[in-house]
């Protein structure tokens, strides 16, 4: 089983998303793109992924390229910062990488964001590809060219738009993920259905057992559909000046919770809590019914999401939300549901409304 999904800009294909069952075709994909044997490759990965896949990918690429090195940094959001980027810069400089060479982001969203940001800034731009190894990265962060690192306590505040030359997904790596990471990935997937495709959202809920057991055909169909939704959105708005912001459904409050729990929860878990808050606001504005709101909570529960978190004060979440990059002036830019399967940008919420929605999931 394999699929190829083209991503376009102004009518031209700028890269493809390749859904594969192993890494065996990665080198041939690069040679088809025109990369040559004398071009250097640096595989950027973290301490979790390195023992699982780095050697295999390095060996496969070494069959087609003369120089393939690996840069490893400690796993975790706490290391998605400029200090880690400086270390990668130094490695590339000492290995004499130039603008013809290539970076390979092998890992989850932290690896992809950091590698992409380095690619955007090293020598004013060097090519990179995404080889995502988590469900979250496969359906979300590897697609669309958003790169960045955290600055002090602020998430993704330093970044650049830099499109990859290829997104290569080995779906078999999902079998190595702990259940908690699968749940995290499902946060973004359920989001895709809620904001863009009600029938897909219902399909996900109906197939939750097959999805959680990683039944191959269902898993491939799910990932392909989510990638296609993300592709459709980023093609229409590549630099997030309009509707691409709809992908932030659940993220304003989710990012604040993620920071305040010191990243003890995965990103998708926090987005799940943020989606419940955003759906609650949509209910309060009479956009969705009580039954639809309960159905959203039950769908998330079926995939292993929590519906509340304790130990975080709602007023702290509100304060952090107001330092988020999604602010417009003094207004928090919220993504809400106009109906299940349709989302919109709303800037008129009061602090009291937001605090009420936060208190629904954050119990102090």
Describe the overall structure.
The chain is α/β, with parallel strands linked by helices. It contains 14 helices and 13 strands. The chain has helices at 26-32, 50-62, 82-94, 109-121, 135-141, 179-196, 198-206, 208-212, 216-236, 251-260, 267-284, 290-302, 314-321, 351-361; strands at 3-9, 12-20, 41-46, 68-73, 102-107, 127-132, 146-151, 154-161, 167-170, 327-328, 331-332, 334-339, 342-346. The strands form five sheets. The chain has a four-stranded parallel β-sheet, sandwiched between helices. A three-stranded mixed β-sheet has the order 1-2-9, covered by helices on one side. A two-stranded antiparallel sheet has the order 7-8. Helix 4 links the parallel strand 5 (102-107) and strand 6. Helix 3 (82-94) crosses helix 4 (109-121), helix 5 runs parallel beside helix 6 (179-196) and helix 6 (179-196) runs parallel beside helix 11 (267-284).
Strand proportion, as a percent range, falls in: 15-25%
Shape: globular
Spatial strand arrangement across the major sheet: 4-3-5-6
Q: Could you estimate the helical fraction of the residues in percent? A: 40-55%
Number of helical regions: 14
Mean pLDDT metric: 94
Q: What is the strand and helix layout of this fold?
A:
Blueprint: E1 3-9, E2 12-20, H1 26-32, E3 41-46, H2 50-62, E4 68-73, H3 82-94, E5 102-107, H4 109-121, E6 127-132, H5 135-141, E7 146-151, E8 154-161, E9 167-170, H6 179-196, H7 198-206, H8 208-212, H9 216-236, H10 251-260, H11 267-284, H12 290-302, H13 314-321, E10 327-328, E11 331-332, E12 334-339, E13 342-346, H14 351-361
């Amino acid at each position: 089983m394999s699929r190829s999904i083209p991503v376009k800009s102004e009518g031209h294909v700028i890269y493809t998303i390749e859904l594969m069952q192993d890494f065996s075709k990665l080198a041939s994909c690069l040679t088809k793109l025109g990369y040559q044997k004398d071009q250097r490759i640096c595989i950027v990965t973290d301490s979790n992924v390195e023992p699982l896949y780095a050697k295999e990918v390095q060996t496969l690429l070494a069959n087609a390229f003369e120089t393939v090195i690996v840069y490893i940094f400690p796993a975790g959001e706490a290391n998605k910062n400029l200090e880690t980027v400086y270390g990668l810069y130094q490695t590339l400089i000492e290995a004499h990488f130039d603008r013809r060479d290539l970076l390979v982001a092998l890992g989850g969203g932290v690896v992809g964001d950091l590698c992409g940001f380095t690619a955007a800034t090293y020598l004013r731009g060097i090519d990179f590809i995404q080889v995502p190894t988590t469900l979250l990265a496969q359906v979300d962060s590897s697609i669309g060219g958003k790169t960045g690192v955290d600055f002090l306590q602020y998430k993704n505040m330093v970044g650049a738009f830099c499109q990859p030359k290829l997104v290569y997904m080995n779906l078999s790596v999902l079998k190595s993920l702990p259940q908690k990471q699968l749940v995290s990935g499902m946060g973004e997937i359920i989001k895709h259905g809620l904001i863009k495709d009600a029938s897909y959202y219902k399909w996900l809920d109906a197939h939750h057992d097959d999805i959680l057991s990683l039944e191959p055909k269902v898993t491939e169909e799910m990932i392909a559909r989510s990638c296609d939704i993300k592709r459709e959105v980023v093609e229409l708005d590549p630099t997030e000046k309009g509707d691409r912001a709809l992908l932030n459904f659940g993220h304003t409050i989710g990012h604040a919770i993620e920071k305040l729990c010191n990243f003890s929860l995965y990103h998708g878990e926090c987005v799940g809590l943020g989606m419940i808050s955003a759906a609650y606001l949509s209910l309060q504005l009479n956009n969705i019914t009580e039954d639809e709101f309960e159905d959203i909570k039950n769908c998330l529960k079926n995939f292993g999401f929590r519906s509340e978190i304790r130990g975080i004060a709602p007023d702290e979440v509100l304060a952090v939300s107001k330092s988020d990059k999604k602010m417009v002036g003094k207004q928090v830019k919220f993504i809400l549901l106009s109906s299940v399967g349709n989302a919109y940008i709303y800037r008129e919420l009061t602090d009291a409304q937001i605090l009420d929605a936060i208190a629904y999931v954050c119990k102090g």
